[in-house]
């Protein structure tokens, strides 16, 4: 059966663009509106934490809500990656494509619910300021520590690419190694619950700066790869 390339290419392009659009919304909400670059230190006292949220409270709330909208776009972007891996892969890569899609969809829970928790942290800041610090701690920890779904997702993407034996695979082999490195560099953030200062704290170099840089970079690499894939650049595609 011949596929209507016009509709298919439009759908592929739409899904591919959800990645950069989503991460831009998250970054604008987090860095620009909320001003969390870097995040406030976990060593702040409860009163200082309340003071952070008492300053431009609604702007911070708006930033977190915008980040929720951006975070959920990780799902369609994951579907775009899955479709590319499925497109010219054999049974092995296709199974891995489905598995990474499931991991990415699950990971989106942590890439959206965390922002909503932070948006709700100052909900009763005037009446019960003591309730804010625990919710804030939970929201911050959920933003950076639950990297397991993403680490497994990127490892599965790498495995699917490396198993692909097509002459012109949709995603080049070097993208597999990028995914492996990103997966590894996210792992230190899992130790956030154990520390309040230093490189492993949620504002530290190993749990914030490096993971954020490589995570944002991952979007750039995957978007570029999806847009440069043989199908996206006009290769003939038929499904039978």
From TrEMBL:
It comes from the Bacteria. The chain crosses the membrane at residues 14-37, 62-86, 98-121, 141-162, 174-195, 201-224. Keywords: Membrane, Transmembrane, Transmembrane helix. This is Uncharacterized protein.
């Amino acid at each position: 059966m011949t596929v209507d390339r016009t509709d298919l290419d439009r759908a592929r392009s739409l899904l591919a663009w959800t990645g950069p659009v989503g991460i831009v919304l998250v970054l604008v909400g987090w860095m620009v509106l909320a001003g969390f670059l870097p995040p406030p230190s976990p060593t702040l006292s409860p009163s200082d934490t309340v003071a952070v949220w008492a300053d431009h409270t609604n702007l911070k709330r708006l930033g977190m809500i915008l980040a929720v909208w951006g975070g959920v776009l990780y799902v369609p972007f994951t579907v775009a990656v899955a479709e590319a891996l499925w497109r010219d892969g054999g049974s092995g890569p296709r199974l891995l494509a489905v598995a990474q899609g499931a991991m990415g969809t699950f990971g989106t829970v942590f890439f959206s619910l965390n922002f909503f928790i932070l948006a709700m942290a100052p909900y009763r800041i005037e009446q019960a300021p003591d309730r804010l610090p625990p919710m804030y701690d939970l929201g911050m920890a959920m933003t950076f520590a639950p990297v397991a779904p993403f680490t497994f997702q990127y490892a599965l993407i790498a495995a699917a690419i490396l198993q692909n034996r097509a002459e012109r695979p949709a995603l080049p082999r070097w993208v597999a190694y990028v995914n492996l490195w990103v997966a590894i560099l996210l792992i230190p953030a899992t130790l956030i619950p154990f520390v309040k200062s230093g490189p492993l704290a949620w504002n530290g170099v190993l749990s914030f700066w490096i993971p954020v840089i490589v995570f944002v970079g991952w979007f750039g690499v995957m978007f570029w790869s999806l847009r440069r894939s043989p199908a996206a650049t006009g290769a003939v595609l038929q499904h039978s």
